[in-house]
Amino acid sequence: MMDPAAETEMVTKWQELHKEGRFSALNVREYWRIKVPEIYSPQPNCNCLRITFDDELAQKLLFDSLEQFMCGGDPAQVYQMVRQLDNPPSLCGRVFKNGDPTYGCRDCGMDPTCVLCADCFKNSAHSKHRYKISTSSGGGYCDCGDKEAWKNDVFCDIHIKGQMVDSPQNPLEKIQPDLVERVQIIFDCILLYAKQLLTYEEGFSLPHDLEIRDSDREPTNLSNLYYTKDTYVTMLYNDETHTYDQVIQTLERSIECSQKDAVAFATSIDREGRCIVKCSSFQQCNQTKHLMEKQTSRGGGRPLKVQVMHTHVVAHQFFASKLLTWLHNILESAQAFRLIFSDIVNKDGGSIVESIIWLDTQMWKTARVQWHRLFISGMLMDQESKKMFARTFTKHYSKMMKDFILDDHDHAVSVASLGVQLFTMPTIAHMLVAEEEVLARLLNTFLSECEKKLKDNKLALEHRSSNTSSFRRIQYILYDLKYLLGVKPETWTLELRKGFLFGYQLILRLLTFMQGMDPMVRQVGQHMEYEPEWESAFNLHIKLAAVIPLVIEWAASDRIVLIKAYRMLMKSLGELCTEEMRRRYVRELLDYSVSCIEYNVAEAPVSIHLPLSRLVAGLTLHLDKYGLNYNSPEFQVTGKPSPEELMEPVLRTQVMIAQVHAQMWRRNGFSLINQIYFYHNVRCRQEMLDRDVMLLQIAATLIDSNEFLIHLLNRFNLMNWAREDYEINYLRGNDEDNMRQTVTMVEEYLQLVMTLVSERHTPGIGQGDEEERIKKEIIQLLCMEPMPHSVLNKALPEGTNHETGMEKVVDEVATFKKPAGATKGFFELNDQYYSHYNLFFYHYTREEQSKSEVAQRARKKTAGEEECCPPPVPPPFTVAFTMIVNILQCDVFLHILKTVLKRMSCAKSQSVSECQLQKVLHLIGYALHEEERYQRNKDPYFHFTTRAQKIQLLPLLEGLEGHARTTTHKDLLAWVLRKYHYVVSLSSESGSKNETSEAPAAAPSTSSSSGASASAEKKRRADQAQLRRQRIMAKMASMQQNFIKTNETLFKVENLTKH
């Protein structure tokens, strides 16, 4: 062994060579060639669980020598001098280790990834805010001082000092050039050495300049090292394929150790990423390797990764790992060292960074983590270095993710995990979108995997397929997409628009693959033989559901982007519409003839996955703020779907769910039931159920109200039910199952209509903001029962930052009752908000609806009130959606009310139910609420009571009073009658002035109108119906001609074949 004097001589020699300009990394590597194996080589037949090295000697010979040469004197004094040159740090940047506590502020954090270390948190204002404590899995760093991470209170008391420096200077300018040069040489040497050794796959020999050579037999102090160079180790590597138990059993059999030792080995392998399990001759180590591989490959599985390595290779790799830790500590100590490091890694276009990204999967867990920590501490603390790293990271993103797919380690120890550190910074994210086409890079990588799973141009995700794991791993890209789009730009540039729209186009392609995926066909005759896979599609949806609202936010923040995005979306939808899907037939009801799309939900495929259609709903809500609408000339694109074609896919889904409730799909198994459950579940409904309701409401504003209701009746297959002679000419009295299904379908139809006219708390549809929407949700939840904070918060949908917004509004609508004894504290709804209770709230499940009704009836009974739950007063629609209220006074709606009420009054009628009556009474209640609002606003447009006189609504309602079939809902009926008379009285009070300003289509105001006016009205409607029929027939003839022109060559071919 070398004595301390010899070590001092070596440092002196290096310094002399440096003065002469002849010193290089080769001199250091030559020294390491001998010293590293001497200190860090495992001894033959040692206890592999307790391998120890002489750390004191290693520090003196290996690390102290580096520091002495690098500093050119006493390292402690030089480090102190360099630290004093630092500007007071305004960024903390402390890198978290696995298990470190992290603190996130729920009030000020830009997103949930923004966290503080314990010291910064305790010295900041965030300790007085709503905060969340978590445990780090390692790899992240403290965001204190990062202005892009916090809305308020960016700095703690420690790092605020860094902001007080007026013009911070570059500390390198105050350091001697000779010191900077020596630091550069050592840093460069360490980085190249660590890169070479930690990615070194050859286990039997070292790089040529690090080998022990024959000439090293003399002097004698090397002879022992030379003669022991036939010592090898068996290295067992960690993977995420095999379980703890499998590894433990394999070790017990292969190296014949106790279970306790096998557990210790397995723990070490899991923690470090690899472990030496045997140190002996090559033959014995190789035999152990084959035994392990044989035992773990039984059954065709992937064997454990085992490698036989020379002890000298292991020694150098161990030292390289130690060097990275040493370098990390140096970088954290002073800004000057970080600047030098950044210059080195960024030279030659960042070749070192590129190499580590490319070779990341070749390293074991500890080595990977050390490199990642080094990049964080050395590059991500400086804005310019961070930008350069982000560009390199983006450039190699596709290769990195494809390597990750094939890798068998968790995402947390992959270099891909550094994406969160880069993409969550708005300035960097916007730069990458504009200049590096980052959205396109990410999405092209994701789509390349999706294309492998296409069937008939639709995604077909098979749960048990061999590449399920790879598709699950590639979905981490969707998290990176979410980070990139986390903050919408305040100012748009031409490059930013191009970059975003390029990525948006690929998002549309992905959504096109998903549109109509996992279609279901109703089973008839026999039960489904096996349950189809459905979970993978919903898992993909849940991840995409966090991205889609951000895409909408970005698109809606700029008029040009919104117009282009909407045109692209219309074009994508138009391409999915085939001639078969455009096939129509005419349906007639009353004096209305409507051209309906041919489709039978009970026989043809239907899918719950319709993300492309739902994106229309999200974007359409933002058109109005730019003075645009669906029919604006900006959106006239070839193949643009009509409003009927636009709503058709989501309407089919609603009908399928209604048929499931009518027990028509009972042979389709649990897969369908589970899908419908998650369709309504709080985790999925924002981008499923809620968007579907929005899209149907949008369609209701674009289609005549009577035609819209007929489209719905037709799709629900209720056209015959709506005829007055249904029970005489159409009802098959001997088919009880069919009758029961029809009754339920009518109930579901009325529920859908009620949802469309009453659900107005979505900002953009109703006149209310996001807080009003959250209040509505909380009120309906607390109408079931008082709830603890955790239960209530869990029942609310989360926003993009995993916040429900509950805390902002809950104290306004509810009172918190403190815990007493074993009872938890809970929120109880304030009395004045019980009037907002909506029995048919569309987010209620059937169980929740029943539970809430029982609770409210019991509350009213206790208070001595009527035991009924009338509809609440909804907020007014926005201007763009005002036309929806016309549904409540149109002819078809009134006909449906009349049909249900007349059949209810007939004791023998089979096609009606108490539930139908209850929903019809609620719909009448909404119409009366609406008319009252219009009367108070002196708006003559809405006259439900006047138009209802045509169907003799009031006599029909009064005729049901005391009827045996209405006993259950007698209180609700009484409420409706009182409300009706009250609204009529409001109308009469308005005087004759309003009579002249009524809508032209309004019926006469008294039931004693002359026969002449009645026949004139009838003739007018008949003429209108005739004109409408003519228009429809002309349109169909035009479509036929267009089809013939488009397929002219086809018709020519057919004519030739005939001749």
UniProtKB/TrEMBL annotation:
GO biological process assignments: protein ubiquitination; ubiquitin-dependent protein catabolic process via the N-end rule pathway
| CDD domains linked to this entry | UBR-box_UBR1_like (cd19672)
Region described as Disordered: 990-1027
A molecular function (GO) term: ubiquitin protein ligase activity
Domain UBR-type per the UniProt entry, residue ranges: 90-161
Zinc fingers (UBR-type) by residue: 90-161
Catalytic activity entry: S-ubiquitinyl-[E2 ubiquitin-conjugating enzyme]-L-cysteine + [acceptor protein]-L-lysine = [E2 ubiquitin-conjugating enzyme]-L-cysteine + N(6)-ubiquitinyl-[acceptor protein]-L-lysine
Q: Enumerate the SUPFAM superfamilies for this protein.
A: ClpS-like (SSF54736), Winged helix' DNA-binding domain (SSF46785)
Q: Which protein are we looking at?
A: E3 ubiquitin-protein ligase
Q: Which organism is it from?
A: Meganyctiphanes norvegica (Northern krill)
